[in-house]
Amino acid sequence: MAVTVKTFRQMEFQGLQFLLLIHHLYLMTDYLSLPTILRSLCKLSMKPLSDGPPDPKSHELRSKILSLQLLLSILQNAGPVFRTNEMFINAIKQYLCVALSKNGVSSVPEVFELSLSIFLTLLSNFKTHLKMQIEVFFKEIFLYILETSTSSFDHKWMVIQTLTRICADAQSVVDIYVNYDCDLNAANIFERLVNDLSKIAQGRGSQELGMSNVQELSLRKKGLECLVSILKCMVEWSKDQYVNPNSQTTLGQEKPTEQDSNETKHPETINRYGSLNSLDSTASSGIGSYSTQMSGTDNPEQFEVLKQQKEIIEQGIDLFNKKPKRGIQYLQEQGMLGTTPEDIAQFLHQEERLDSTQVGEFLGDNDKFNKEVMYAYVDQHDFSGKDFVSALRMFLEGFRLPGEAQKIDRLMEKFAARYLECNQGQTLFASADTAYVLAYSIIMLTTDLHSPQVKNKMTKEQYIKMNRGINDSKDLPEEYLSAIYNEIAGKKISMKETKELTIPTKSSKQSVASEKQRRLLYNLEMEQMAKTAKALMEAVSHVQAPFTSATHLEHVRPMFKLAWTPFLAAFSVGLQDCDDTEVASLCLEGIRCAIRIACIFNIQLERDAYVQALARFTLLTVSSGITEMKQKNIDTIKTLITVAHTDGNYLGNSWHEILKCISQLELAQLIGTGVKPRYISGTVRGREGSFTGTKDQAPDEFVGLGLVGGNVDWKQIASIQESIGETSSQSVVVAVDRIFTGSTRLDGNAIVDFVRWLCAVSMDELLSATHPRMFSLQKIVEISYYNMGRIRLQWSRIWEVIGDHFNKVGCNPNEDVAIFAVDSLRQLSMKFLEKGELANFRFQKDFLRPFEHIMKRNRSPTIRDMVVRCIAQMVNSQAANIRSGWKNIFSVFHLAASDQDESIVELAFQTTGHIVTIVFEKHFPATIDSFQDAVKCLSEFACNAAFPDTSMEAIRLIRHCAKYVSDRPQAFKEYTSDDMNVAPEDRVWVRGWFPILFELSCIINRCKLDVRTRGLTVMFEIMKTYGHTYEKHWWQDLFRIVFRIFDNMKLPEQQTEKAEWMTTTCNHALYAICDVFTQYLEVLSDVLLDDIFAQLYWCVQQDNEQLARSGTNCLENVVILNGEKFTLEIWDKTCTCMLDIFKTTIPHALLTWRPVSGEFGSGSSSDAKEKLDTISQKSVDIHDSIQPRSSDGRPYQPSAGSTVGEEMSKTRPTAKFPEQKLFAALLIKCVVQLELIQTIDNIVFFPATSKKEDAENLAAAQRDAVDFDVHVDTQDQGMYRFLTSQQLFKLLDCLLESHRFAKAFNSNNEQRTALWKAGFKGKSKPNLLKQETSSLACGLRILFRMYMDESRTSAWEEVQQRLLNVCSEALSYFLTLTSESHREAWTNLLLLFLTKVLKISDERFKAHASFYYPLLCEIMQFDLIPELRAVLRRFFLRIGVVFQISQPPEQESGISKQ
């Protein structure tokens, strides 16, 4: 600024001329003379004004103002050289800052304002050199004036104006935080500043100030403006880290009109001494070597650590000031303070924030540790070269003496000792005792002279007299004591000024009666404040403290975390209790900035708090409803929408609040525009389809928003509609839509958060029992469309959330909602499928999964039908694009297949059929991944018992699928997917054949007879047709499935069903397995034979006659059809199997059974139980023992006959149920024994049968001419030639054991009678004649065949021995028979025996005849049939010839040549 000559001419005072001269000198001089000029101006500005109210025209005031103006001009025009010159900077520190501390508290507004402008200039141009001075000015002047309730409105206004300009510069704001709040030894300027501004912005304490409403409002606005400016600075500082999804400018520049309007208020004060729209931050970076030294390094992590340490220290100091020991303990625990007395003493010395009284009490305490600390504290003073009073002053300036005499005594004692220790060369004091007493007397003198409570002050003479004899019984020099008295009288001993003069921030809590009193009190405070500030300024005038110029944006995070609470409090109060539009605008802008900062640095708690506050002030989500909505609430809504639009990438969980508000906003818009309830989506309909509600009842929406209760005041509703009408304005509607359309620009994580919370809000809307709404659900559909073009990785995460939401919504009990969800899914799916999919991806599968979930969980026929129709439509229109989605499609149809609704099943099956027959044909490689799903789906259709025609057709389609596998094995080999661990050559089995055959086995195990029979037929048909392509290990897998048919654990529980199952399915399967085995013997002999034998063994053990017969028949078929290809090892296994079957089916219980009670009561119930235990309990159905064989002795194919159960039901009524079961099982065993005998006979001799041979023997006997030329024995038929002698002997042993058992039973007349009486087998006594004779007959034929076999000469001896034993035993048994019928049963056996013996050579005949001769003679006495007598006649005739007893007749002469 310029001071004109004209101005000075008008001034009569010479001092003003002097100032003018200085000004001209300044303009002309070099920088070396400048410090001198500066000092002169400072001294002039510090001259005191006259008492009383300041006169604006007084020369003192005018010279003060002019000197300050000149100082301001010097500082503003200082160039880079002056700004870094050490002399100039030292002059500023020593003179200007001290002068500023004096004028900065002036009650004259113009002086005060000039002081503030000078301070601003210093802050702008010299802050790197004035760290300590700036702290004093803030702490002792600025913030004090804001905090005290006695300061005038004008002072507060000017301070806050200045702060507005400071807060507008980002560099200054961040520098204040970094250099003061993060400095262990500095005050928390930034924190205090924000807290004070927050209180002003909230209007707290305005009543105490006696301000008018206008003044209060303007001050509040200024406070808010400062807070918003600080936040804008923080936003500006961290803008490089912000990414706007919509590529807009940063938040600080988005509303230039508002900022301009705020900054143009009171232009006369802001711009009077030079505007600081943006404080010059270039100087703060430091120019030249000096400033570089003064500037610290900006390390954000280091400053954050310092800030944390500072907080710990402050907490510790706070605790110390309440309870010293607790504070020290806390600091030690936190590692901020050492544990030695020296460490603690040093802490007490250096930390000025400690309460001086508490320090004194702590040091004076008698505790041992306290005393050690006190000694260390005193020892850390250096009293060398100081006179006694100066040393005492130095000692006592650090703390306030405790009031207790003993504590003072201890302190003075140690002080005296330390003083003498430091001044050992002194001769004044004879001992430390002298110093101790003198120190104590000085304390007493200070109290006496300066305490207002003491009325009669001590005189110098009294003081000298009091100290007589204290120097080792001598006196100290009187002039010395007199000097002490004079010094103490002139200046009392006290703490250092900075501690003594610190003013509590709430010094004027007492109510001020009048404005005059308030001013008086304020002036006193100002004087005290000036004194303190001046003392502090002088204390730091030579201190060089490093100043860090902040550069890192990371500082904003801790700044915001420190200050977010007062910010939020100010903005919340402003919105809550003030309707002024400017206040609301500032608050909303501040909240926007705060949200931006919290978003940028991902500070979740703070971000959520601000967004919740914003949402709360929209009044959309509060319980009171929206009846009180005002313009500020409408603006809040707009702000919330803007935040959503500009900060969407960072909002995270805060999306919940925003989307809740948007949801409620839509409802408010409907009310505001007067839409009738029937047009509101999801309104509940009445039964007749009309909307509920009468003229006296409010629509659901009003009730839902908490607007009305009970009867409706329609005038109220009209006013509500008017007040919220602006929510439907075009700008709001467009802004809301922009959030959803703009979702495409959100980043990958943000869109997931957005979608997740949109789904949560949608669920809340739909959960309403009275008025479910679908607004958010519609928006979900929309954003799905918008975002479908995202990269697949992002889309998968989005759909994971949306898909789960559709899962729930699709199962909503409200059908309208579910229909909307399914239809939306259909539309989205059609669009998604249009994009297609590359091989081995699974996006379609994830996308279509909700259809599957809805189908599984929603039992509504309407919805299920709709799902099926949607899927059918997709198949018909998008089949070429579907890849992984086929799995979901078949899964849906799989669920539909088990439905009981005909239309659902029919449509699903039609579509499945279309896929299998047409789509598979065209796009088989694309569908191969879901091939097994298709087969599984068809299997499910087949298993739906309600639709048998569909079941049969489904099996046909499975058969059709087999053709695909056969025709296209290469497609399976080339398909990898998730079968990477499967060898390529096995893929056609794992993914093709196995699923088909497995599902057919499932059909067999699950379905009714006709369907399972068809399934069984198709399964084995596929095996027979395509088995030539199967690998050996495939067959192993396959038959594991096939044998599940016989798995007893999986058979039906009900006895009748079990019987049917065994008689039909097991029977059928058994024959089919044997057919397959025969067809593929070469492959299967190693793989399957053991399993087949084990299965046959299982079958004959079941209590089911039909199955048991089938088991033996199948064994017979397998051996007869394949025996020629059997190896020796296989024959061993075959014989072992037959032996095992024989052993396990001998009905031993027939001989051991005893009745439970009655005349044969030798048994007991436990006996019966034991017998039952010997029977296999595994089977179900039992068939009749009469099963005819064909004329060639081979078994018929299975057919059901009357069961043994039926037979037993006709037996005597005495049979109890357990006995019935036992008898039925025994009877089946008897049948199996007979079947096995016939099986062995057929295996060895087929096609030559025993019946045929018996008939020939009988015919020959009838002709009385046995034909010795019959070649039955020598024909090369049956499996005889493939069996070794040992194997034949094994079979022979089985036969003979069976024979012996039957013989034993038939001989036990008593046991047979007991069984008959108990109800076993019909009306007559049971017997085993057929088993007895047929087993022996088969054995004899085997032995005689071996006896006549030239290739078995090595076994002839054993054969002969066996023959002799068996035949003699048999003849002996025959002789014991008493029953005519029994003897008749043996007729064919005897004919066989005699005929066979007659055919052997003479040499052999001799041995046999001599062995049997006595027995045959005995037989002659029986009444034999003619044929038997004729053969016997031949036998005896030959005996005569062979033993040369007689000559043979001529016609029989050829016999001996045999």
Please outline what is shown here.
This protein has 67 helices and no strands. It is an all-alpha fold and about 1450 residues long. The N and C termini lie far apart (about 160 Å).
SSE arrangement:
Layout: H1 5-9, H2 14-28, H3 34-45, H4 59-77, H5 80-84, H6 86-103, H7 109-125, H8 131-147, H9 153-167, H10 170-181, H11 189-202, H12 206-209, H13 213-237, H14 256-263, H15 267-270, H16 289-294, H17 300-322, H18 324-333, H19 341-350, H20 356-364, H21 368-379, H22 388-396, H23 405-422, H24 432-450, H25 460-466, H26 478-490, H27 497-500, H28 515-540, H29 556-577, H30 581-600, H31 604-617, H32 631-646, H33 655-672, H34 700-704, H35 714-723, H36 730-741, H37 748-767, H38 775-787, H39 792-809, H40 815-834, H41 843-857, H42 861-878, H43 885-897, H44 902-927, H45 931-942, H46 948-967, H47 969-974, H48 984-1006, H49 1009-1026, H50 1032-1042, H51 1055-1079, H52 1081-1101, H53 1105-1122, H54 1128-1145, H55 1149-1152, H56 1165-1173, H57 1204-1209, H58 1217-1245, H59 1250-1263, H60 1285-1307, H61 1309-1318, H62 1329-1347, H63 1356-1376, H64 1380-1385, H65 1387-1398, H66 1402-1419, H67 1426-1442
Helix pairs in contact: 2-4, 3-4, 3-6, 4-7, 6-28, 7-9, 8-11, 8-28, 9-13, 10-13, 11-13, 11-29, 13-29, 13-30, 17-18, 19-21, 21-23, 23-24, 24-26, 25-26, 29-30, 29-31, 30-31, 30-32, 31-32, 32-33, 32-36, 33-37, 37-38, 37-39, 38-40, 39-41, 40-41, 40-42, 41-43, 42-43, 42-44, 43-44, 43-45, 44-45, ...
